[in-house]
Amino acid sequence: MVYGAIMNNESNEKTVVSIDDAIEAIGMGPFQRRVLWAAGLCFTADATEVMLLSFLSLTLQSEWGLTDMQTATMTACVFAGSIFGTLFFGFYGDHYGRRPAFLLACALISLFGLATAFATGYPSLVGVRFMVGFGVGGLVVPFDVFAEFLPTSHRGVKLLAIEYFWTAGSLMTPLFAYLTLETSWRIFVVLCAMPCLISGIMGICLVPESPRWLLSMGRHEEAKAILRSAASANGIDPDSLFHANVTLKDEQVESSNFLDLLSSKWKRSTLFLWGTWIGYAVGYYGTILAVTRIFDEDAMNDAQNDNGGTPHFNYQAIFISASAEILGLIVVIRTIDSLGRVPSQVMSYLFGGTLLFTLSILSTVTSNSAILTALSFFARAFEMMGSCVTWVSTAEIYTTEVRTTGHAAANAMGRTGAFFSPYLVGGNMSMLAVGSIMLAIHLFTAFCACHLPETKGREIGHTSLDDDDIIADDDKDGNEMSFRYDDGIDGNVKPPSSRRIV
After folding, report:
1. Residue 79: phi, psi to the nearest 5?
2. Domain 263-472 sits in CATH 1.20.1250.20
3. Percent of the chain having pLDDT more than 70?
4. Strands, DSSP E only, in 155-235?
5. How many alpha carbons fall within 13 Å on the CB side of residue 236?
6. What is the pLDDT of residue 256?
7. Burial environment of residue 119 by CB neighbours within 10 A (0 to 12, 13 to 18, 19 or more)
8. CA–CA separation, 77 vs 34, rounded Å?
9. What gap in Å lies between CA 193 and CA 110, rounded to an integer?
10. Contact call for residues 80 and 130 (beta carbons, < 8 A)
11. What is the Cα–Cα distance from 18 to 481, expressed in whole angstroms?
12. What Pfam family is a match for this entry (predicted)?
């Protein structure tokens, strides 16, 4: 095992260890769980800050007498802010560190999320919600921080575990609305800002800088100190694991920028990733909007009869739909390492689009609630499955120097798709047209996903569609130690000399 290999090396010969081997030696334990909670609460915050829009927009339209255009702008400004935020935080995280970007994103969301409660009119509300969206754009960074602390042998399943926090946010938002919205929408938005505030506090106390990023900046001693601390937290003696003769392999790289993503090395991977992210975002948010629209007709009729047209929310239907994400997560966690990243995405998007198309058609010919609920439930489950694997795959494809920039750019493309989703699903468009458009988008997403590189069982950042070179073994002249698991242990990871990017 990795741990034993390092422990047994007690000679005075200098030993060079790669960051992947060091992370593998530290293993999974309390250290990664702390990072998981801090990063996961950012996902909860992302879900609550986005999902609250469906409640807040209709409530303020009624309370403040807003026009349809103003209501749409209130929702769109958050996605617009997140587009700029993802690009900013991608650059910031790659140049100034993951931890500062993590904390700055949390600070912006918490500050302007709380400031929303004190908005006195429409202009100030749009301004603070834009800044909330800007901060939300930085929540890709905590995901990458968590990914960079995970051993290769645990990465797929553990990266998916963070998605439970998103589902928690999806369920918390209607719960907060149910408890507070009729009393005060200001209390509602304060509650929705709490997850990110807690995440920021945990980040300050528990989340160090990424050692991968430190190595890419040439800061070896700081990286080694963090790895020693992580080993200690996981119950491993850091002096035995990283003794005086162990040094970390030099992984210093040039700083990245947005144009690096379109270089010959990354262009094909980047373009297919962007297509996948745009399609998945339209599909995910479009499915939520379409399902809400399908089940809103009777609710609005009841509202008009009982409340004079006052907005009415069917909280039971919202909960049932959101709970489908739990099923999607359970299935994908159990299958991602056996099916692989690419097949999981293609299958999820194809089934998700087909189910949504069927739901849209049947909603025009039947009012059978059981059938429609079942279709909407499984449609959202497959949307969750596909989006989860897309997140994991993106973090695994890019190397350290471009990972945050690449993930942020992909996220920006996703936010752009989300920005347009209300216009593709809402309005007076027939459900037949909605279903047809969404099916076409899902087919496009599956096409892009099937052209992504497979990252199952490979070290993070060691795949690229544009790189046909064999991944070289890190063992050279006997001066470096390799502790990778072979097929006999992991079942997925092959020796580097036998792996080729295809």
Report:
1. -65, -35
2. yes
3. 81
4. none
5. 26
6. 64
7. middle
8. 33
9. 6
10. yes
11. 8
12. Sugar_tr
Q: What is the mean pLDDT of residues 396-425?
A: 82
DSSP state of 456: T
Sheet containing strand 480-481, strands side by side: 246-248, 15-17, 480-481
Cα distances from 288 to residues 25, 224, 354, 369, 420, in angstroms, run 42, 45, 15, 17, 14
Give CA separation, 65 vs 116, 187, 200, 296, 305, in Å: 18, 20, 36, 21, 20
DSSP letters, 312-348, are ---HHHHHHHHHHHHHHHHHHHHHHHHH-HHHHHHHH
Q: Label residue 472 by pLDDT band (50, 70, 90).
A: very low
Q: How many CB atoms lie within 10 A of CB 341?
A: 24
- Would you state the structure tokens that stand for residue 89, as one six-digit string? 């935080």
Token pair 């304060």: residue: 190
State which amino acid sits at residue 322: A
Instruction: State both tokens at 105.
Output: 């994103």
Q: How far apart, in Å, are the Cα atoms of 243 and each of 6, 9, 221, 314, 417?
A: 9, 9, 13, 60, 49
Is residue 411 within 8 Å of 84, Cβ to Cβ? no
What is the token pair recorded at 365?
Answer: 């010919």
Stated length of the chain: 502
Distance between alpha carbon 399 and the CA centroid of its chain, in Å? 17
- The yes/no answer on whether domain 15-237 falls in CATH 1.10.10.10 is no
Instruction: Tell me how crowded residue 107 is: count the other CB atoms within 10 A of its CB.
Output: 16
Boundaries of CATH 1.20.1250.20 in the chain?
Answer: 15-237, 263-472
Residue position matching structure tokens 């051993």:
151
For residue 480, give the 3-state DSSP assignment: strand
